[in-house]
Amino acid sequence: MTALLKLSGVSSFYGAIQALKSVDLEVHEGEIVTLIGANGAGKSTLMMTVCGNPRARAGSIRYDGQEIAALPTFEIMRRRIAQSPEGRRVFARMTVFENLQMGAEVAGNPDTRTTMDEVFALFPRLSERSAQRAGTLSGGEQQMVAIGRALMSRPRLLLLDEPSLGLAPLMVRQIFAAIRDLNRRTGLTVLLVEQNAFQALRLAHRGYVLVNGAITMAGTGAELLARPEIRAAYLEGG
Ligand SMILES: Nc1ncnc2c1ncn2[C@@H]1O[C@H](COP(=O)(O)OP(=O)(O)OP(=O)(O)O)[C@@H](O)[C@H]1O
Ligand SMILES: [Mg+2]
């Protein structure tokens, strides 16, 4: 398998504080890879570094065989990398429809209609609510909008930061089922950041553990789930 995304020795900083410490990580074409770790471990930073903000101060980020670490963020997005950031950032005053449309526009996807039908098929709730202002949706529905908006750009690589945050178990299962379905049906490659380690490792082909900005463990989802250190640190009560 070829690596669609390959980070080698990536370090990033916020001012003088080092948030990522020489991170090596690969996501192969067609894979779901999950990154787990405690609060403040650097999971969101890793995802944002792939998008060029903050910029990697050392190391290499290769995407589809090309170095992207020095590219401006809009150039990175244009290469069909879509990010659904932490905290369901929807445009509250815009309708569901308009939010989705924005996702297509930023990436220059001309076939908005077809893509939107696909998003509606994945999240029928959004189709029922397409005229509703996004800010008045429930938390889970807003998360669907955030993921849907990322999908509207027809990404090859989808970066999902904590899609299950704050959601009820039923909604978490729906979101995870949607990710699995997209991956199986369309081969979409996904890098998933999750605190919900149990569900994420069951969903993912492979996973990485991030501790204080450094990768400490990697393996298949099943391997990581079976590790006693993982169970103790991330799955207790889960
Ligand atoms: N804009 C910023 N300026 C300064 N420090 C930051 C900034 N963003 C994050 N940090 C710091 O970098 C470290 C990693 O943060 P990050 O948000 O990547 O963690 P995380 O693993 O996503 O955590 P969580 O699970 O809570 O979302 C933390 O110590 C955080 O305080
Ligand atoms: Mg985070």
What can you see in these coordinates?
The structure is a single chain. With 238 residues, the chain is an alpha/beta fold. It folds into 2 domains: 3-80 and 156-235, Rossmann fold (3-Layer(aba) Sandwich); 89-154, no CATH class. The protein contains 10 helices and 10 strands. The strands form 2 sheets. It has a 6-stranded mixed β-sheet with strand order 6-7-8-3-9-10, with helices on both faces. Strands 2-1-4-5 form a 4-stranded antiparallel β-sheet, covered by helices on one side. Strand 9 (206-211) and strand 10 form a beta hairpin. The protein is globular. It starts with a strand and ends with a helix. The mean pLDDT is 92.
